[in-house]
Specification:
Helix content: 25-40%
Shape: globular
Strand order of the largest sheet: 3-2-1-7-16-15-14
Distance between the termini: 32 Å
CATH superfamily of the largest domain: FAD/NAD(P)-binding domain
Number of strands: 17
Number of domains: 3
Radius of gyration: 22 Å
Number of helices: 15
């Protein structure tokens, strides 16, 4: 479904501008959004490599994972920042025409199968590419071992020993750097099949507490798995459902203090005021407060930022990342049935084949390993630029879920799209780079 478009070196027009070389590490929604933004906003020839350890671009919509519903409603899934209703309009024009939506308010509030969201992203990708004959795109399946900024650009080294040097690298891996999504689904189905054939099987243990776990659990039940399931999660509670939109909420000025305690006291205070003023659901207030965290973040020293990542990030993400209301109701019923229960957290790598890793926490530590840097010194700027001890790492940006492991803010696709466009507009790209075997 995705294709590779590579032009030969001798096909370039004489006198043309030098072709920049860009790497996008990650081929999911964040990676596709990055490529689309580059084609729409980088007004010079370039070659982009889309690199993923497991999947081709758009593969997140394949198989059972593609049947799972998007965690966000259609209104929040536009890949064009200047047209926030673009995905809703695409749904209406593509699937819901000829009076189908006459009895509905519109498609903006629905959660659709991820395969359908993938089709939308690929449609917008194809449209952008058709307007850029000067753009060459390669799709590469390979595992990145190391990233190193050097005088000629950023060297990206693969596990097989090959490498390439790029003008700029966008790291858009979602949750794939630490926990592979496709592997979670495959291993869960295989384990359920083994346990179903046993006379007295042990429980199937799913490690995690996010949308991926919810989708895998409900799909196993839909396919007929009736065995006991244990959910090992530090939070010990269900992922949260969506609330109403937070448009129109007004927040006060954030504090100028360089204290994390003061920052979250401000957030709690603003949440209380907004809850009392608007009478909204707590989800709505948290969403609006999260949008203000980037302002507070600018004032915090690195030690306070590290404290957030170590102690608050997972809790913040738990209350910020949401499920469709219907999925949440089905999940609650599953726990009420007694067939599924929470258990204390455990390390999936230290146990047997009945323990499946469904985690999806973005890993700053995994990114630090690629860079050969101390994770305590890493952070990300407003445009996604990676920094070490406050100093920019030239030629490197992080967008999407991996960026959310380095700074707080809305855990939404809309925020990823904003990061991507800010990053593309902020980073100068130029020059030729080379492929190497070392």
């Amino acid at each position: 479904m995705f294709f590779e478009r590579v032009a030969a070196e001798d096909a370039r027009c004489p006198g043309a501008s030098p072709m920049a070389r860009i790497a996008v590490v990650g081929a999911g929604p964040s990676g596709l959004a990055t490529i689309i933004a580059l084609m729409r906003r980088l007004h010079r020839p370039f070659e982009a490599w889309m690199i993923d350890a497991e999947d081709a671009p758009g593969a997140f919509g394949d198989g059972p994972a593609g049947e799972a519903l998007t965690t966000e409603p259609a209104r929040d899934l536009s890949v064009l920042p200047e047209r926030p209703d673009d995905f809703s309009r695409w749904l209406k024009d593509t699937l819901l025409a000829a009076g189908t939506v006459s009895a509905l308010r519109g498609p903006q509030d629905i959660h659709v199968p991820r395969a359908l969201f993938r089709d939308y992203l690929m449609a917008r990708f194809g449209e952008a590419l058709s307007q850029r004959p000067d753009v060459h795109i390669r799709t590469i399946r390979g595992t990145v071992r190391h990233l190193l900024a050097e005088a000629g650009g950023v060297r990206l080294a693969f596990r097989d020993g090959e490498g390439a040097v790029f003008d700029h690298v966008f790291i858009a891996t979602g949750f794939g750097m630490a926990q592979r999504e496709a592997a979670s689904w495959r291993e869960a189905f295989a384990a359920a099949a083994r346990l179903s054939g046993q006379d007295d099987p042990p429980p199937l243990t799913l490690v995690g507490n996010g949308p991926r776990l919810a989708a895998i659990l409900l799909d196993l039940r839909r396919r007929g798995f009736s065995g006991a399931v244990e959910v090992a999660a530090a939070a010990g509670r269900l992922p949260q459902p969506h609330g109403r939109g937070h448009e129109g909420m007004v927040f006060g000025e954030p504090p100028t203090s360089r204290s994390l305690r003061d920052a979250f006291r401000y957030i709690r205070q603003e949440c209380s005021i907004a809850e009392a003023r608007h009478g909204g659901q707590w989800q709505t207030v948290v969403d609006a407060a999260s949008a203000r965290l980037s302002v507070v973040w600018r004032n915090l020293p690195q030690a306070e930022r590290n404290h957030y990542r170590r102690h608050i990030l997972r809790l913040h993400r738990h209350f910020s990342v949401r499920l469709a209301g219907d999925i949440h109701r089905r999940l609650a019923a599953e726990f009420e049935s007694g067939r599924t229960r929470f258990v204390p957290p455990r390390d999936p790598k230290s146990l047997d084949e009945t323990v499946i890793d469904c985690r999806e926490a973005p890993s700053a530590r995994a990114l630090a390993g690629l860079l050969g840097r101390d994770v305590a010194l890493l952070s990300a700027g407003d445009c996604g630029q990676l920094l070490s001890d406050g100093a920019p790492l030239r030629g490197l940006s992080a967008v999407g879920a991996i960026a959310s492991s380095l700074r707080p803010g809305p855990f939404t696709f809309a925020e990823t799209v904003r990061q991507v466009y800010r990053g593309v507009l902020a980073v100068p790209l130029s020059g030729h780079r080379r492929v190497s075997n070392g």
